[in-house]
Amino acid sequence: MIKLYNSKTLNVEEFKPIKEGHVDMYVCGPTVYNYAHIGNARPMVVFDVLKRLFEAEGYSVTYVSNFTDVDDKIINKAIEENTTEAVIAQRYIDAYQDVRKMLNTEVPDITPRVTETMDGIISFIKELVDNGSAYVSDNGDVYFSVEADPEYGEISHQRLDQLEAGARIEVNDGKKNPYDFALWKKTDKGIQWDSPWGKGRPGWHTECVVMINQNLGEYIDIHGGGMDLKFPHHENEAAQQECTHHNALANFWVHNAMINIDGQKMSKSLGNTLWAKDIVEKLGTNLTRWLMSSVHYRKELNFSEETVETARKELDKVLNPLRQVDIKSQLASASFDDYDEVSYRLFLDQLDDDLNTPNAYTVIFDTVKKINQGLRTKEPDWNTVIGLRNSVVKMLSVLGIVVDRVVLDEEDKALFTKWNEAKANKDWDGADQYRNALIAKGLM
Length: 444
Ligand SMILES: [Zn+2]
Fold this sequence. Notes:
The chain has helices spanning 38-56, 72-80, 85-102, 118-130, 160-166, 207-215, 230-244, 276-283, 285-293, 305-331, 341-352, 357-376, 382-398, 410-424, 428-440, and strands spanning 3-6, 11-14, 22-27, 60-65, 134-136, 142-144, 181-186, 200-202, 220-226, 250-256, 259-261, 264-265, 301-303. By secondary structure, it is α/β, with parallel strands linked by helices. The longest helix has 27 residues, at 305-331. Zinc ion binds at residues 28, 208, 233, 237.
């Protein structure tokens, strides 16, 4: 039984799929005006692990994540570089997909774009205007009226009257309520489309609702994204669905916490932005993923030299014994294809509990401890030791960490034989020489 924290109910709840054995999951994607930073990499990893967990537990998953390819920042960059918005967007979409591959995250099944969803977005806004949930303001923009949804505030647990009382009101003459948000912006700058409200482009909050309805259906299992999207973006998405389809958009709202750099929020003004590509290139896929999952997804993750080094030591502690099993079992001509079901089940149980990766790590360490104990015995019980090794490899694969089996060729085996013979003959110089050769091959 998989349990997940639902931001909407503020509870860890049992996951019950809408369609038997299947999960429909939508995660808000990036606005493609720049490269992915390390903060963008966290939802990539979190929702990838969640998808892998569902699959490990026997579900099929349809994973949809959009690209926001219409936005002021994209338009400004196109003007700056004297090119089209399409060129700018494609550059960063490609770069984003590259980072996904580098991180060994499965690329979403469907990646809809705003530019390809425009007809649907315009007719959805028209429906809201026609049923009185949205209005055309004096300046020609179209706004959603938050008062049209009596449940407004249900995702972020804020009441409209409290919001109004406590908030600094953004000065905008066109709005009836300060929390009304733009569905359509009238503009003559940059890329624009014809609409019943004149030439312009859509606001940000409508696209995901339309993309969910078009690609997955009216009511999906999981809507995910970073914690920063809960309000107003997800609140606004939910409100639009209530006012058109009269149903909740998603069963579970799942949000990941942010990443800090050296204990500080990552921001342009602090100049501490770390690009995801640079980090993965520097640390490698496995270490980046190990670090990302070392903290529970609802807790902030601190990225620093210290946390990277801790992660590196932990991962070595896991991977080295696996290599030792590969090498020593082959030298003993032992092989075993099965895995230890008990430890693997225990590992999945931890992840089933609201993706508790830190507790899952404890199971990995405990299993590795048993492997080390097995390796230390004079005549290891290879079926047990290799079974535990295979179990850890399976656990790591749920975390997106790939471990290749070390395969010894005849030359390697001969080197081990010579090393052992030299030691037996007390030929210490020879033993050192063979040992160094094994180290050079990465076999020690
Ligand atoms: Zn969204």
